[in-house]
Amino acid sequence: MAEEERVPPVLFEEQGYLADFLSQSAGEDRTIEDLLFRHLTFDGILISKLEFSHCRFEGCRFIGCRLPQLYLRSCTLDGCDLSGCQLNDATFRNVLWKGCKLSGTQFFGSFFQQCRFLDCAAEYANFSGGILKQLTFSDCRLPEASFSDCKPTRLSFSGCGLQRSDFTGTPLKGLDLTEDAIEGILLAGPELKGAIVTPFQACDLARLLGLIIR
User: Fold this and answer.
1) Is the entire prediction scored with pTM above 0.90?
2) pLDDT 10s per residue in the chain (214 long)?
3) Does residue 25 belong to any structural domain of this protein?
4) Can you list the alpha helix ranges (DSSP code H) found in the chain?
5) Residue 32: which CATH number?
6) Which of 30, 93, 134, 137 is the most exposed place for a label (fewest CB within 10 A)?
7) Nearest Cα to 145, choosing from 120, 128, 170, 169?
């Protein structure tokens, strides 16, 4: 079915049936499609290889969830709280995260393609070891987040707070950081080759790398 012909997502209202529904879908290797989850609580969900396609999550809370190898395709998460959840080794394609709380959320080893994070609070979030293709962060708070050992392609930040975030082992060639706060970011040095920064940021980075500026 073409994208423009898809019907609007159907509201899923059964909070009491949610955990069983997810378990059954994973057990039958069935993709969950075209559903709207609004103001639901995903409490302690521990399921691997869940798959969602063309779904919306609005104002949902994910509490203590572990969802390894989660697969989201063409989904939107709007105003959701996934703080502290483990979403390691997941796959995200064409996913929009808008106004979400992602404090300490684990995305270790995950694959992102054509995804956007808008106005999200993601302090201490862990994207380490990820493959980041056309991944955009706009107006996000990412202090002390980890992007170490990632493989970025067209990664971008705009208006983000990246203070003390870890980019060790992640090449930043072509990455424009001029609109972001990068005080105290962690680097070994070679990662900076080809990165775009302001003169003020360059001075701060020089001190970080042990240079003495006179």
Assistant:
1) yes
2) 345 567 788 999 899 999 999 999 999 999 999 999 999 999 999 999 999 999 999 999 999 999 999 999 999 999 999 999 999 999 999 999 999 999 999 999 999 999 999 999 999 999 999 999 999 999 999 999 999 999 999 999 999 999 999 999 999 999 999 999 999 999 988 899 999 999 889 888 887 776 666 6
3) yes
4) 18-27, 199-208
5) 2.160.20.80
6) 30
7) 128
Residue 165, class by beta-carbon neighbours within 10 Å (0-12 exposed, 13-18 middle, 19+ buried)?
buried
Residue that has been written with the tokens 């080794």 in this structure: 89
Structural domain count of the chain: 1
List the structure tokens of 32: 């969950």
In a domain, 3, yes or no: no
For the chain, count helices (H), then strands (E).
2, 15
Q: Is the distance from CB of 164 to CB of 183 less than 8 angstroms? A: yes
Label residue 81 exposed, middle or buried (CB < 10 Å: 0-12, 13-18, 19+): buried
Residue 115's DSSP bridge partners are 135
Q: Is residue 2 included in any domain, yes or no?
A: no
Please give the residue range of the domain that contains residue 124: 9-208
Residue 205's contacts (CB-CB under 8 Å, 6 or more residues apart) are: 182, 185, 187, 192, 197
Answer whether residue 1 is part of any domain: no
